[in-house]
Amino acid sequence: MKAVILAGGLGTRLAEETAVRPKPMVEIGGRPIIWHIMKIYSAHGFNEFIICLGYKGYVIKEYFANYFLHTSDVTFHLAENRIDVHRKSAEPWRVTLVDTGEKTETGGRLKKILPYVADDPFFALTYGDGVADIDVTAQIAFHRKHGRKATVTAVRQPTRFGALHIDGDRVSSFAEKPPEGGRVNGGFFLVSPSVGPLIAGDTTAWEREPLEALARTDQLAAFIHDGFWHPMDTLRDRNYLEEQWASGKAPWKRW
Known about the structure:
Layout: E1 2-7, H1 15-18, E2 27-28, E3 31-32, H2 33-42, E4 48-53, H3 57-65, H4 67-70, E5 72-77, E6 82-88, E7 94-99, H5 106-113, E8 123-127, E9 130-132, H6 136-146, E10 150-156, E11 163-167, E12 170-175, E13 183-185, E14 189-191, H7 209-216, E15 220-224, E16 229-231, H8 235-246
Parallel strand pairs: 1-4, 1-8, 4-7, 10-15
Antiparallel strand pairs: 2-3, 5-6, 8-14, 9-16, 10-13, 10-14, 11-12
């Protein structure tokens, strides 16, 4: 299976960090948060990733271009232009980096990578700025059982996130900016490539018309997650996640 990561946003609420790098490259414990997200998926058997680039996407390209070097012990023979590799620990990942445009909305980014997942019954989709101790294996079983076009992870969080109204195991409606609290969109989706026609183009936000349409037509399932989930929207969020990692008990670390 493939996991798609939305990594192209401006990250304006974390400007202290994102002035020089895209938000998915902001580090937690010396590793970019996108690495933590990939490790979450990898712990459940995912080794193929498609990353939707946008703002400062070249930073992400350079990170993966040099990933093997970052994770290995090496000796450089400068006069011979040769490298000896002594120890390597790179994961068996296949990473496809797609430039989806600096100003493209989340739905537009998704639409642009659909050719890479066209032959799959469904794929994982998440944002490049949040971690959770989600049981992705259980989520996949849930998605297969219910047979809807998409499954969203439903978590509890303040109302600055889109609210999910749940009837049994399905999402009955979706509101991006609700006035009251409740279950919210925690990302970590499973999605069929057949959602493509619901996305008009670059200016379409995945969280608006596509998810609203899926909810109206009973094609959006809710996978309830009551465990740890935390986005990295602000410097305070980043510091909190750093503290969790430094404690040696980061809830999302399942590898």
